[in-house]
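User: We ran a pulldown and think these components assemble together. Before we commit to crystallization trials, I'd like a predicted model of the whole complex to look at. Sequences follow.
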Amino acid sequence: MSLTPATVRIPAPAPAAPGEQWYAEFGARIYRYLRYHVASADEADELTAETFLRAVRAAASFDPARGNAKAWLFRIAQNVLRDARRRERRRGSVSIEAFRDLVSDAPSPEERLLHEEEVRRLLAAMDELSERDREVVSLRYASELEYPEIAGILGIREAAVRTRLWRALGRLREVLAR
Amino acid sequence: MTDDGLPSELAPVDRLLRRARFEPRESLGPEIGGRVRRGESPAVAHRHSRIYWASLAAGLVGLAAGARLLAVRSAGTVTIDRCCFDLDGGGYPDDGVLVVTGRGQRVERLRVYEDVDRSGGWSSGDRLKFERGAAPVLTGPPEAGAIATQCCLDWDGGGAADDGLMVVRSSPDRVVMAAIYETGPSPVTPVAGWQLR
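Assistant: Here's a predicted model for the assembly, 375 residues in total across the polymer chains.
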């Protein structure tokens, strides 16, 4: 018996789970935000997954009328990060694979290594900033959020975000200059 | 002032930060989706009682492991735990395999796990990706699908490195089945002359 086109059934794709939808929309930004705070891509992977698992668990409590999903997810990521830091997962020695997620347009392996070293130094300097300063820098540069979005997440005015960012960058410059 | 309105003395730091750009691996989204669909719980669901529950769980796991060890030893079986390979197509050698088997005989239990805590073996912090009992999942060689093999090692405890491990995935990071086979004329590819364990 041969199959005619009429007898072929193509199954409908499985509907995306809520976590997947959120990830598709905000996953990369959340990942980059977390990545500025941890030593390796592996840790960022795990914290990103934890953020979305918590979000799915708490989905019923999310009220769009009280705020957007992006800000809500970033607040969950902040809590995940806080818990991780409580568990003393600070930057120590990291594997050679730690920077496998670094985007680099270096034309040669040597320049790629130099770029990695530059970023390693930068993240080490970030570690010396206060929690508040690290937050504003990572939200602005890693997640590339606009000032009003950062203001919404941090619960402060937009002008205060700018001031805080400038001060944080100034401190970062001092640390790097040492 | 920079384009972004920053004072010019902050421009070098600004440039440095803009060059530090990270991108998550492509398989992370599907992996999280899989964990959500499997109903996995967040790691810190009940912070206030974690120590209590961790102690209780560790005690129960210890008791269960002890009982299982006694049962396994008395039955003349052996446990083989090997890590770490990229068996799920995720791109990283972080998958391990635990086999409980009669020496050179039937495989009683086959487990594929992700070595989450980097312990180099199966432990309570790892993520179970696949488990089967004494009955092989496959009844013949698969005709299609993504297949990873590890050959040849002593997977059945017989003493000779003549067994193959085959793991089949349906999408990156998702293991759907695994099998141990005794190698035949074609030792690396389980096509002809293989015998399921």
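DSSP finds seven helices and one strand in chain A. That may be worth checking against your pulldown data before setting up trials.

User: Thanks, that helps.
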